[in-house]
Structures
1.
Amino acid sequence: MEEAKGFVRRVLLFKFKAETAPDHIENLIKDHSNLVNLVESLKSWHMGKDVSVKYSPDGFTHVIELTFESTEGIAAYMAHPAHLEMHERIWPHLEKILVIDYKPTPFCT
């Protein structure tokens, strides 16, 4: 298996604190989605809510998938003022977060 050249994906799993109101969560997610318009190295932004039937998501309720041009793009995103401001706004409302960065790997059988 060979890693895809170039782009890198970041998957974020969020479990919000119980006291965070659903409309506030929605606003935070909406504001987070705007990062794709502010950070040049961030090429795409996708989000979904957990719909697991069989597997326990360990309380995680939201998933966000980000696509970057490279691992250097992730570093630029992490240092970008818009990301840092969003981090400060969302972090107090998270009970748990899981972050995974990966390079997509084509797999053929």
2.
Amino acid sequence: AGMVAALTNESATSKSVYFALCTSEMIYITHLLEEEPEKLAGPLLADTYVTLLKGRNAWYGHKLAKGELTLEMGDSIKGKGTIQGVSAVDAFYKLLSQDSLSVMHPEANKSVAPVEMCPILKTLHKILIKR
């Protein structure tokens, strides 16, 4: 969210679109992994909303996009603590890439790893982990 905000000059429309897409992807992941996903819906949405507004992850993304921080500086920032989103992106990417998991791709009509249905997660992984 911070990267989107920084790269679009704080465009409300861009942040809104990102929030909608990000939330959809998180709901998809929750339904994929949780037996009773509805129990997480409220807390998940609330945490996502607050984090996107002013959380450490948004701050970190904003600083990265503005060039005020670099990935080489790591995800433990003095005065901010650990930016948990970086390790979370890596963990979910690895989890959803496992050979033992597959879902039917609606357009390709073939079985794919669930991560293939998560373009935001894939992009964040490319930026934050693969660099």
3.
Amino acid sequence: MAKYLAQIIVMSVQVVGRAFARALRQEFAASRAAADARGRAGHQSAAASNLSGLSLQEAQQILNVAKLSPEDIQKNYEHLFKVNDKSVGGSFYLQSKVVRAKERLEEELKIQAQEDREKEQASRT
């Protein structure tokens, strides 16, 4: 009886160990893919993501903006900020997420404008 119990325990540990190792490999692969994606987005954009705590994609999803248009960002920001106001029963947490998303998208617009200016200067010379 003890022999069978020991075999069951050993097999269980092996199964759990393999599952843990597989999950760890998947997490490393996902982390590497995210790092590569941030690297392609440019160093300034990655730095902005780190500072704000939101990626560009998250900020776009929060404000429901497909392309970076200052008018759309401002319009959606104002609507979501009013809807989530605590005085009308909204959530302060969601309101703060909306503010951070707007800040992140504005930072990305600044980065893009700077890159455009640098390209213009390079093409002139």
